[in-house]
Every structure is written in structure tokens, then in C-alpha cells.
Amino acid sequence: MKIFLKTEDEIKLMRKANQLVGLTLAELGKNIKPGVSTLQLDTIAEKFIYAHGAIPTLKSFPSPFGGPFPTSICTSVNHVIAYGIPDASTILKEGDVVSIHCGVLLNGYVGESSYTFCVGKVNEKVEDLMKVAQKALYLGIEQAVAGHHIGDIGYAIQHYCEGLGYGVVRELTGHGIGREMFEAPQIPNYGNRGNGLMLKSGMCITIEPMITTSDNRIWMLPDKVGVYARDKRPAAHFEHTIVIRKGEAEILSSFEEIEKIVVN
Prior knowledge:
Elements: H1 8-29, H2 38-51, E1 55-56, E2 73-77, E3 80-82, E4 97-106, E5 109-118, H3 124-142, H4 150-163, E6 167-168, E7 174-176, E8 183-187, E9 204-207, E10 210-212, E11 218-220, E12 227-229, E13 235-237, E14 240-243, E15 250-251
Antiparallel strand pairs: 1-4, 2-4, 3-12, 4-5, 6-10, 7-8, 9-14, 10-13, 11-12, 14-15
């Protein structure tokens, strides 16, 4: 599978798509509270995305495990790590966490990001998990520079999280991104320094640590799409889309508007 280096014009379009993702996640953050269903959140996201001239990339996209994905966002609650399908029966309650994965197609290019939200007040252990997962994201981004290797990103995430006793999911990874939601290469959240493909300026990728409370083993939900932590303890998922540069990666997505609303 080919890796496409993006031009500055393409990166400009990707930046716009990713900024819209950040605004969409912030709009959802305003509505995350006890008593709200995950399907209600999906409806809010879908209307917001279409109102801004974009298309939700997840809608009808073939899921990793077969069949089209039926909704515009993923809502993964508590021990669900990824690909949680919004539905009317999943009602958020005080103390939950919900990881929301959002992607849009705008002017021919994809933006993508994920953020784990608290529902009301969560316990201290869950707060710590979320802080570790978010810091791991930025530690991975620090390594995502031209001349480094994919393994440098994964090593930074794995070394930090496992050193604190948390689990790092192996089976789900970041990836290249551009005109398509999933492009080459894969970006694992574990690895060894100096291993893997060398990063080049103009590569656009997602980095998305999926961190479990302790046990990194996963299992599938009955719907054969969602993935959850086998120990059924909370998980956290944060993601940015970035472009590889010399010296320092450029983050194309943004948590700025989200964090005006929520403080983790």
C-alpha cells in the first residue's frame, strides 16, 4: 500500500477538516451529561457536521470487522475501547467515561480525532487513567518527526504507560490519513526505538493511544464491531491527526475548543 506525502495545499485542506472535527467534539462536550443517550450524541454530531458542509466519514464506512458502520461517530463507554455504536439504550450516567471518535470529509480530505470525556464527576483512578492516556498522545507526537521511525512513536507511548502499570492495546493502531480515512502506514502504540518505517516530511498520520486500566487484552462486543477491555475496567482513547515535519510535528486537529468546556 502506497504512502502519499501531502503538499502544503493538501495539508491546508486537511487542517480545515480537522478543525471541524475539533468543533464537532466540542459541540458534543456541551451535551455530555447524565441521562443523555449515545444515540442523541450521534444525532447532534451528524447534524453539526452536515451543517458545516462536510460528511461524517464513519457513516456507512465498512467496519474493521465486516458490514457498514451505521452511525456518524463512535461512542465507547467505560470499558469499551473503540468502535462503540451509539444507540438509544446506552444512557450515560454520573461517573461514566465516554470516548468519542469522530471523522469528517471536507473538500475531499479527511479529518479525524478522538477524545475521552467524563460524565459528571469520575473517581480519581479514572481521572489518572485519562491524564496518562492524554500525556501518552503528546509523548508519541514528540517523536513523530522527520528522520525518526514509527517504532519511536510506539516506544514512547508504551514505555510511559506500561511504566505506570497501564495497558497498551496492541491490536488497534493509528494510521495514515488524507483523501481516505485509512491510509498507510499503520502507527502502533507500542514498539522499539529505531524500528519500522522512517518518517518523512509531508506524511499525515493519526496517533491514537488506547490505554486500559491494567490488562491490555481485548474482546469483541456481541455486535462484532465494538472492542472492549477483557477485564471490564475503564479505558481511554485520545487521538490527533498530525503532519510530519522536520524538528517538530504539526498537529492538525485540536482539543482547544473541547477544553474550554471540559477540564480533565
